[in-house]
Amino acid sequence: MFEFCADPKLLEGFSWTACYLTTVKHQQMYWSVLTVLSLLALVAPTAMIFGFIGAWLKRSSILPFRFLGWVYTSTVRGVPELIFFLFVPIALDQLIELIRHKIKCPEWIEPIYQGSDFVVCTAAKMPVGASEPWVHDLWNFTLAVWAFSIVFGAFAANVIDGALKAVPKNQLETAQAYGMSKRQIFLRIQLPQMWIYALPGLSNLWQVLVKGTPLLFLLGIQDIVYWAKELGGLKTGVYEYPHPDIRVWYFLALLVFYLLLTWISQVGFEQLTSRVSRGQATMGGDAALGGARG
Predict the structure, then answer these.
(1) What pLDDT is recorded for position 168?
(2) E strands, 190-275, where?
(3) Which DSSP letter does residue 114 get?
C-alpha cells in the first residue's frame, strides 16, 4: 500500500507494522467486519418475522397450527444451536439442489443418494460450478442468514408470545366491548404495548446473536475469526511478513470489537426501552412519567 513497503526485508519497527497491517489479506479481514455487521442487519428483521409467525402459530385457535408452532419453538430450544447452524445450511442446500435436479434433469436415472454422497446433475448445483468465487461466498452467507434466522426466530417467538400475553386483559376486553375487531385490538392496543414487555428478552436475544456470529467460521465463511486465526498464526519464510504466533493480539482485538458492539447495543436498547415506556402502565413508563413531571 505504501511505497516503502516494496521490500519487506528492509522494514522494521513502525514501517514493518504499517506495511504488515495494510497487506491484501489484512484488507480482507477489515472487509470481513462488514460480513458480521451484514449478518446482524439481515438476521435481526428476518428472525423477528419468524418470531411473529411462530408466536401467531402458538396462539392460533386451529390445533394443527398451534401444534406446528409448539414443534418449531420446542425443537429449536431442545437442540443445541450448533447442530442447527450446521444442519440448516446443508439441509437447505440439498433441498434446493434436489428440486432443481427434478426440474432440470428429469432424464436422470442414477440414484441421488449414493452411500454418503449426495449426487445431482451439474445443472442443478447451487451455485453452478463455473460461478465466480464471490457467488459461492454469497450463497454460503445466504444459507447462514437462514440458519441464524430460523434458530433465533424460535426464541423470539417465545419472547413475543409471552409479551402479548402480558398486555393487561382488561384493556383488550374494554376494546372488545367498544366493538373493535380482533385485528384492530391487536394493531392498536396489543402490539404497541407488547414491546415494553418484549424488549428485555429481545435485548438478551440480540446480545446472544452478536456473540454467536463467530459461528460463521464453522460454516466456512471467512469472517473476522477466520482471519484472526490465519493472520495471527505462526508464519514461515515463505511469507512476505514472517512473525511468531501473535494470535493472542488478534483475538484481543476481537474481544474489544465484540465488547464495543455489545455496549453500543445495550445503550441502544436502553434508549428504545425508555421511548416505548412513555405512557405505559409499567415501572419503566412510571419512571419516564415521573422524570417528565420533575
Answers:
(1) 87
(2) none
(3) E
CATH number at residue 67: 1.10.3720.10
In the chain, the percentage of residues whose pLDDT exceeds 70 is 88
Q: Which three cell numbers stand for residue 138?
A: 454469497
Specify the length of the chain in residues: 294
Identify which of 118, 269, 95, 293 has the alpha carbon closest to the alpha carbon of residue 196: 269
| Average of per-residue pLDDT values in the chain | 84
The total number of structural domains in the chain stands at 1
**Residue 170 Cα distances to 54, 173, 181, 188, 229, angstroms:** 25, 5, 15, 15, 56
Helix (H, G, I), strand (E, B) or coil at 234: coil
Strand ranges (E), the chain: 113-114, 117-118
- pLDDT, one tens digit per residue, over 183-227 is 888 888 888 889 999 999 999 999 999 988 888 877 778 888 888
For 292, counting Cβ atoms within 10 Å of its Cβ (0-12 exposed, 13-18 middle, 19+ buried), the class is exposed
Name the nearest CA neighbour of 210 among 168, 276, 262, 149.
Answer: 262
Our CA angle for 134, 140, 144, nearest 5°, is 140
Q: How far apart are CA 182 and CA 160, in angstroms?
A: 18
Q: Tell me the per-residue pLDDT of 2-28, one tens digit each, with 9 for 90 and over.
A: 666 766 666 667 777 787 778 888 888
Q: Which of 183, 185, 204, 170 is nearest to 273 (CA)?
A: 204
Domain coverage including residue 205: 3-293
